[in-house]
Amino acid sequence: MADEELETDTYDVVIVGSGIAGMATALALQPNLNIALINKGPLKECSTYKAQGGMAVAVGADDSPVEHLADTLRVGQGLCNKQAVEILVSEGPQTLTFLQSIGADFDKGENGLNLTREAGHSRNRIVHYFDYTGRHIAETMARETETRDNIHRLDNCVLIDILTGAQKCCGCVIQYNGCFKVLRAGVVVVATGGYSGLFARSTNSISSSGDGIAAAYRAGAAITDMEFVQFHPTTFTTLSGKVFLLTEALRGEGAVLLNHQGERFMFSYHPNGELAPRDEVSRAIFHEMKRESQEFVYLDARQLGKDYLANRFRQVYSELAKNDLFMEKDLIPIAPAAHYTIGGIQTDLWGRTTIANLYACGEAAATGVHGANRLASNSLLEGIVFGRRVAKTINQESSKPVSNCLLFSAVKQVGKYQQATEVGAALERVAGVIRRGRDMEAFLTELQQSAVMQGKPLADSKDYHDFNACQLAELLLEAALFRCESRGTHYREEYPQKNDHEFKKHIIQQWGKKAVMQ
Ligand code: SIN
Predict the structure, then answer these.
(1) Which atom belonging to ligand 1 lies closest to the Cα atom of 230?
(2) Among 245, 382, 384, which is best to mutate for testing ligand 1, by the most ligand atoms less than 8 A from CB?
């Protein structure tokens, strides 16, 4: 299908995704640029909005970006890009100032900001707004975008494909109200978030389905670190079957983990107990559940008392109360769930991908700041720091929409694919906290065999949702099978050790090419 057949709009910059990274980019772009800020669904569905804990920033009296750097690198297990982390931590304080300048507020303590602790941090360095920091930041930024005349929010639009011509990105295809539409642009920024929402048990909404990563892959961009999916240790399943996050700040402020015998078990797995890095805590919980043949362990926050819990953790408290659980007296059943995807579209330190005029930031991007395991509360910071860097680069290099660009539209693609829900159930089984090569191989073969059978045209965003799920699962499994070691969030039962000699490298995947380690 030629793009001429589709309705077409033209912008200077199209930002796909309006979570923290997309909005940070939009707000830092020059006011003379005509910007489309695309969102897939309501603000409350995006991962930024759901973030409870807060944002890590080295502003405490006993802290500095050097300590924040050291913690991030240690938790990242040898795969962080040190330069990217230096940027992240050193730009933390100014990021906080930026948020405050547009009206964001953070909880105060006796000596200024109330800084909390989360797992893996050696200092109290998380700024927060009660236990709904992400929602507060997202609403503040959304209000600010509405004051800008040059930012046009396009609601309920699904990214279908990224368009390229003459080896440059020149726009994208979206679906809106059942119709495909071309958005021509000088620059496209992918800020669509990660793909953890594909897993059957996830703290993300199903709209966190990696659309931007899959589209960038089809357009030829390099993708990296796809095997690293972070599992949040403490999630609760509500009476209606939804997975609800219980922020790590609860453990940071004194809650502990108990097994079914009522024993605290974390110290037999890690010297830092409940404050061990997130991958260690998730694995310890998983082992304990297996050892006791149970589906969950318990979070015990009783010692914090009702007044403290109901005020400081008001969102969690009220959600649990709706489920007839009261943290001051009840043990809360919890289990790990998919939470954050570290891998994504490979970028440089300015958010440039391997395709000219295509940028990525936030969870969709792999900047290298998280290595093999993300330090808690570094992601809101990353979204703003790198979103603003993308904007800075576009402001300097801004290219106008290419009018004679030959658009390759993938809208008429044909694919054979499984339903995303089936893929999610299989990922949960084979690519969860503990992975086994033979299970992953079996599911990968199943996906690949279905792909070579004759398929059907991708007709709408639901088809793309399923198709993307299959492509992303293949990328994840291929990378996870390639990495024959255990590191950070990726744990292979048959290779339980880290193997720096062979695997202290990143896996890069690109359409039509064999995966390579670099
Ligand atoms: C949490 O509040 O535990 C989530 C924070 C994060 O994912 O960084």
Answers:
(1) 7
(2) 245
pLDDT confidence of residue 257: 98
pTM score, two decimals?
Answer: 0.96
Buried b (16+ CB within 10 A) or exposed e, 60-76: beebbbebbbebbbbbb
Ligand 1 neighbours (beta carbon < 6 A): 51-53, 247-249, 340, 376-377, 379
- How far, in Å, CA of 389 to CA of 212, rounded? 19
What pLDDT, on a 0 to 100 scale, did the predictor assign at position 423? 96
Instruction: From the CA of 53, give the closest atom in ligand 1.
Output: 2
Whether the Cβ atoms of residue 356 and residue 24 lie closer than 8 Å to each other: no
Within the chain, which residues score under 70 in pLDDT? 1-4, 398-416, 451-456
Q: How far apart are the first and last CA of the chain?
A: 37
| Domains, the chain, with CATH or none | 3-227+342-407 (3.50.50.60), 234-336 (3.90.700.10), 420-517 (1.20.58.100)
The C-alpha atoms of residue 313 and residue 328 are separated, in whole angstroms, by 12
**Residue 208 CA, distance from chain mean position:** 8
Q: Residue written as tokens 């920024």?
A: 189
CA-CA distance, 159 to 174, in Å (whole number)?
4
The active-site residue, picked from 135, 201, 251, 278, is: 278
Q: What is the pLDDT of residue 460?
A: 84
Tell me phi and psi for residue 132, to 5 degrees: -135, 55
The three-class DSSP label of residue 500 is helix
Q: Which pLDDT does position 405 carry in this prediction? A: 58
Q: Are 451 and 416 in contact (CB under 8 A)?
A: yes
CA of 380, closest atom in ligand 1:
8
Q: What are phi and psi of 143, to 5 degrees?
A: -60, -40
99-120 burial code (b ≥16 CB/10 A, e <16): beeeebebbeeeeebbbbbbbb
- The angle subtended at Cα 339 by Cα 333 and Cα 341, nearest 5°, is 160
> What is the reported pLDDT for 1?
46
302 is catalytic: no
Distance, CA of 99 to CA of 24 (rounded, Å): 10
Residue given tokens 């007839």 in the structure block? 324
